[in-house]
Amino acid sequence: MKRISKDNYKSYVFQKMPKSSHFKNMFWAFVVGGTICTIGQGFIELYKIWFDVQMATALASASLVLLAGILTGLGVYDNIGRFAGAGSTIPITGFSNAIVSPALEFRAEGYIYGLGAKLFQVAGPVIVNGVAVSVLVGVLYVIFGGLF
Amino acid sequence: MKFYKSTTLTFKNAHVLGGYTVAGPKENAGKYHGKFDLALQNDMFGQKTFERAERKMFEHAMDGALAKCNLGHDELDLICGGDLLNQIISTSFSAKKYHCGFLGLYNACATFVESLIVGASMLNNGLNNVLCVAGSHFSTAERQYRYPLELGVLRSPVTQWTATGVGATVLASQVHKPVPKVVSATIGRVLDYGILDLNNMGAAMAPSACDTLLQHFSNTNTNPTHYDAIYTGDLGKLGKDILLDLLLQDGFDASKVLHDCGASLFFEEQQTYQGASGAACTALVFNCHLLHKLAVGKYKRILLAGTGALMSPTSSFQGDSIPAITHVVEVQA
After folding, report:
1. Which residue, B54, B194, B273, B295, has most beta carbons within 10 Å?
2. Where are the domains of chain B?
3. A11 — phi, psi (to 5°)?
4. Total structural domains in chain A?
5. High-pLDDT (> 90) share of chain B, %
6. Which residue segment(s) compose the domain that A110 sits in?
7. What's the CATH class of domain B13-172?
């Protein structure tokens, strides 16, 4: 084979490969993400009939988590995520999907070493990094908090 | 130009007695609809786990191939084959019920062609009947290599879809009627062109496919026009285009004869982007399609180039690029 260098090959492949359409991805992320948030707002308005705002907000989050969990179990959520991308990952429903999908997947290996061990396979890194960054921000706030 | 140190093996008595395929529902809805010996209604295949379903598919393919060739279990000398799961459990576990030798093989998606080469070599060494088998299952491969099935993630346009299916072929040293023969094989080397993107397997494997094909052309004094068809394994549409470009750089125009098993498996509207991937691609297309074409005389001389990406999730997480391998066998009617 005529030697094409690795660097040349990489740039050749990059120029040859189909690119994802950022506009299309952003459009669907906006529509789906927006819809999820609107549904969430709907839940808040609904629960406000019976509860105070703080309680209604918490209940709305719980409802979204439940709804996404059920949709994951029914095999619908991954089909939404396939085109919605961050639109369905970033809202709290994405977190629910990240917990429920490994749970379904690894149940076959038992409840301890399967489900128990792999439950946070996807969400784990989010939690760990989320906590780490919160601590960092907290420390910065303690040091510089007085300035603002 | 200098080739690597490799010779093309030739086989005198590697007759392809017959083949049997088991395919998943999505595969049967694709371009080879109705050509599979057994098409599953459901990819769980009545089992509790996907891994067991894959195993059952292997058992059915192996039993089916023997039955189709009118061979009893006691007439089989050796099973060689593999799959994509860790420790190739699907093949090993399903070989349990046979009382003959077993060689477990792994060359990722090139495993089927590898098994044909090993099987044909064994016939040269005096064995009579060898069963070559390989396959993959979308749902078991997906969770081993990527994410849980139900996780909603955006798929890159360069991705492929792991095919669900198993293909088994019986090679025999003696036959009573004219059947296709595996006449030669070129064993490939491992090549790494620095592709890091796990989704873009076609680009990672194309240079390797080009390398072994050129080696085969050189060793056998042939060029693409000598073959009725050249089928690569699972380069996908993008990988196939890259391979055509690479071959053209070396002065070979293969555009009329080159096909890719993976790219040919699904329809556009099945949303698999670059087509199918997985060890099932070559095993399915060879046994359900190519053997038939050879039998009816539509093809006289073909090449089957199994392509494999040899990374693991661990190597990829550690930032290593994807090495690839390609083996080529020549089959004549």
Report:
1. B54
2. 13-172, 181-332
3. -70, -35
4. 1
5. 93
6. 22-147
7. alpha beta
